Amino acid sequence: MIDALARLSADRPALLWLLPLALLPLLTSAQRRVPVAAIAAVPADGPSRAIGVLVRGAGIVAIAGLILALAGPYRRGETLTRTGIGAQVSILIDRSGSMNETFAGRQPSGIEESKAAASRRLLAAFVGSRAHDQFAVTAFSTAPMLVVPMTDRHAAVRAAIAAIDRPGLDYTNIARGLAMGLSQFGPASPATSRALLLVSDGAAVIDPRVQDTLRAAFARLHPNLYWLFLRTKGSPSIADRPAGEDTPQAAPERHLDLFFKSLRTPYRAFEAEGAEAVAEAIAQIERLERDPIPYTEQRPRRDLAGFAYAASLVGLVVLVAAKLGEADLRRSGLPAAQSLAIASAPARRAA
Amino acid sequence: MTLAGLVLRNLSDGRLRLLAGALVLVAMALVARPFPFARHGVAILAIVDITGSMNVRDYVGADGMPASRLDTAKAALRDLVAGLPCGSQVALGLFTERRPFLLFTPIETCSGFAPIDGALAALDWRMAWEGDSRISAGLFRSLAMAEELGTDLVFITDGQEAPPLPSRGGPAFDGRPGAVRGLIVGAGAPSLSPIPRYDDRGRETGFYGAGDVQQENRFGPPPADAEHREGYNPRNAPFGAAAASGTEHLSSVREAYLRTLAGETGLTYAPLDGSTGLGAALMAAATPRPVPGRFDPRPVLGAAALLLLLATFLAPLLRTRGIPTWKKA
Question: What's this model's pTM, rounded to 2 decimal places?
Answer without folding.
Answer: 0.74
